[in-house]
Write a structure and sequence with these properties.
The protein is mainly β and 398 residues long. The protein has one helix spanning 353-356, and strands at 2-8, 11-17, 22-26, 41-46, 49-54, 57-62, 107-108, 111-112, 144-148, 151-155, 160-161, 167-168, 181-185, 190-194, 199-200, 206-207, 212-224, 235-243, 249-254, 264-270, 273-279, 283-284, 302-309, 312-317, 320-326, 341-344, 366-374, 387-393. The strands form eight sheets. Strands 17, 18, 19, 20, 21, 22, 23, 24, 25, 26, 27 and 28 form a twelve-stranded antiparallel sheet that branches. A three-stranded antiparallel sheet has the order 1-2-3, with no helix packed on it. InterPro entries: ConA-like_dom_sf, EGF, Laminin_G, Neurexin-related_CASP.
Length: 398
């Protein structure tokens, strides 16, 4: 599989192969080869339908029915590759050559790649396109950059401060402690502290312990499975107890949650009913509706277990089997390659659930979670030893 964007005879060309055929798209207009004009380029695909947009002029093309997932677990190359022999013969029209020009602001699946001297994994024969200490967007939040003998300085808008205008003035004198996040509140000329896991209080200065995690919205726990390398990923299992009074929310997400092609197993609520979604390589959604005589948002404790036996999925709610389904009788993909990452309640601060899950779930979980067990482990996950924010002690009361 591959996806390649290249410059061919003055036109931009997108080529991708999902395992069964190579699709080719080419822009209608040429790029200006004067070395002064910046062009805006968007390229990608949704399922097997590709799109290419150069300076606002968009073209799309749909491949014939077949594969619709890009299985490309390799490094991402910009401007060239370490060896031209790595380039698939179908990925380019002519003999592959490196790009000559300037590239900036690369965004892959809503995440910007930092094109600096230190952030990439490697590279060679790269120079500075800007030519000054200011560079591109060195000053954040619409700050203005000025070149000086010692480097650069930023002139910041009224609401921002810091060497690169990276800090809100409302957080410049914050009292948040214990690795808490300062969230500015411009309307009240103040701020709030979002506490790291294991801390609470207005300034996150009170240490807490819990075995029941309470999620209040904008909360999450990120757990790294220490036994991931030894797991048999064709036979996965997760079980937990939850309670809530909300009809929507992401309870658990086994997977990296970085891009649309990551494997995952997800548990959550949609319209007051339990919903389980699993992706073993090609996105397959399995919405589940349990008994009409009960509700998952009744503030009572519910016990849910999801078992994956290759492509056969079993879901138990309160120890009752509510779904037994083979999601792919062809056994095309049979392993849950979730990367050893499990999220509970939501994702990192600033990452919206509806965006990360591409609409499968609408919001963060509000409620309590306890007794999480992965696979056939004899011990429950110690949620206190994971990472996370805005999670509190749910051991007592509401």
């Amino acid at each position: 599989d591959f996806l390649c964007v290249s410059l061919v005879n003055g036109f931009i060309q997108l080529r991708y192969n999902l395992g069964d055929q190579t699709v080719i798209l080419q822009t209608l207009q040429k790029v200006h080869a004067n070395g002064k004009t910046w062009h805006s380029l968007k390229a990608g695909r949704v399922g097997n339908e590709g799109y290419l947009d150069l300076d606002g002029i968009n073209i799309t093309q749909k491949a014939s029915p077949g594969m619709n997932a890009l299985d490309a677990h390799t490094d991402f190359f910009v401007g060239g590759v370490s060896s031209l022999n790595l380039v698939n013969s179908m990925a380019v029209e002519n003999e592959p050559t490196g790009f000559t020009g300037c590239i900036r602001e690369i965004v892959i699946n809503n995440r910007e790649l930092k094109l600096t001297a230190t952030d990439p994994k490697g590279g060679a024969n790269i120079g500075d396109c800007d030519g000054t200490a200011c560079g591109y967007t060195v000053c954040k939040n619409n700050g203005t950059c000025q070149v000086e003998n010692s480097g650069f300085s930023c002139s910041c808008p009224q609401e921002w401060t810091g060497n690169t205008c990276e800090q809100s003035i409302h957080c410049s004198q914050n009292r948040c402690r214990s690795q808490a996040l300062c969230i500015p509140q411009p309307a009240s000329f103040s701020y709030t502290c979002v506490c790291a896991l294991g801390w609470s209080g207005k300034y996150c200065d009170s240490k807490i312990q819990f075995f029941i995690a309470k999620f209040v919205g904008n909360s999450y726990i990120k757990y790294r499975d220490p036994y991931y390398g030894k797991r048999d990923l064709q036979y996965s299992r997760i079980s937990l107890n939850f309670t809530t009074n909300q009809t929507e929310g992401l309870i658990a997400w086994m997977g990296k949650g970085e891009d649309e092609d990551n494997d995952f197993l997800a548990i959550g609520l949609a319209n007051g009913t339990l919903k389980v979604v699993i992706n073993l390589g090609e996105r397959i959604s399995v919405p589940l509706i349990h008994s009409k005589y009960s509700s998952c948002c009744d503030e009572r404790w519910h016990f849910v277990t999801v078992v994956q036996n290759q492509t056969c999925i079993k879901v138990y709610l309160d120890e009752e089997l509510i779904v037994f389904e083979d999601i792919d009788p062809q056994r095309k993909y049979t392993a849950l390659n979730y990367g050893g990452i499990c999220y509970f309640g939501g994702f990192e601060i600033g990452r919206k659930v509806n965006i990360v899950t591409t609409g499968l779930f609408q919001k963060e979980f509000i409620g309590k979670i306890k007794d999480v067990v992965l696979f056939q482990d004899s011990k429950k996950i110690q949620l206190m030893k994971a990472e996370g924010y805005n999670v509190y002690n749910g051991n007592h009361g509401n």
